Amino acid sequence: MKRIIVIVLMFPGFLFLSCKDDITNPPSSNEFLVPELVAINKDLTFTMGNSWGNPVEVNEIPAHTVKLSPYYIGKYEVTNEEYFCFVKDNGYKDSSFWSPDAWEKLKEQKRERPVHWDSSDTPWLNYEYSNTAKKPICNISWSEAEAYCNWLSKKTGDSYSLPTEAQWERAARGPDPGRRFPWGDVNDFSKYNDVGFFSQSKLLKEVGSYPEGKSYDGCFDMAGNVIEYCLDWYDLPDNSYYNWCYEQGIVQDPQGSSSGKDKSIRGVQNMLSSEYEIAREITTTRRFLYVLYSGSGQLQLTPASSVGFRVIKN
To answer: 91-95, 205-209, 261-265, 298-302: which has the minimum mean pLDDT?
Structure first.
């Protein structure tokens, strides 16, 4: 009992705060931290894609109907201290957490931690962009995010992964008719960390810093702060996957194209200058890509400075 009390004092964010069945606060241990989760178990049939009209991007259409199985998704983006548990547990030295291509690239680069971390007890401290324990992990590759999920699955005995685009979008927009932004239908700079090339803020904020910007289901920072990796292959230039989904009528638990070279990312930051352009970029339906394989077919273990992730549990 004393050990449990000590852990709760050290990590108060993981205290059981509610017995509601729509929020799950997994226990921590003295070995690792488990990200706090939100259950998505209602209104699982929804419209995916831009169903509101202009402004609209070609990769957001056609809107189509998706039906999901119940799942849990991270209430917050994975933090530095949560990811550090994976690093401390020799996650970068265990091939079982990595795809064969990623493992070969990791050995080639002689990597034992994220590229910007040092070997101290607070290895993120020297990285100005994300330099506290409660800020989201970033400047990692898609493969590093995937490896963390595989490690967390082994540690907990549950099935963790990156969210599919459909899972991410349902958690961001809520049930039909859905929200253009996680908090509603009108852009509001006070509800998210407007960090990016043209914004006033150049640094990330600790997760949960914008409670008024949370989604319908209670997920934080699904716009602003870091961009987030998804599980799906990105299907442009022909947008064939969204077109295929539309033709099916209702698609059960879509997982994206069957193959590709790029991965999808969601929750994009402010990359543009005008308010109109910003509002177009940070919607719940906006899609971008992360290059996983080069044109020559080589896996890229390239860290993306503004990209992090959240987990899902099936």
So the answer is: 298-302
ω into residue 62 within 30 of 0, thus cis?
A: yes
Total domain count, the chain = 1
Return the number of other C-beta atoms located less than 10 Å from residue 297's C-beta. 8
- Look up the CATH number of the domain holding residue 304: 3.90.1580.10
Distance CA 10, CA 30 (A): 10
Residue 18: inside a domain: no
Q: Which domain holds residue 204?
A: 43-313
Sort strands 227-233 and 160-161 into parallel, antiparallel or unpaired: unpaired
pTM above 0.85? Answer: yes
Per 3-state DSSP, the chain is made up of helix, strand and coil in percentages (nearest 5) of: 30, 20, 55
Q: Over range 266-281, report the average pLDDT.
A: 70
Angle between helices 100-109 and 142-156 (to 10 degrees): 110
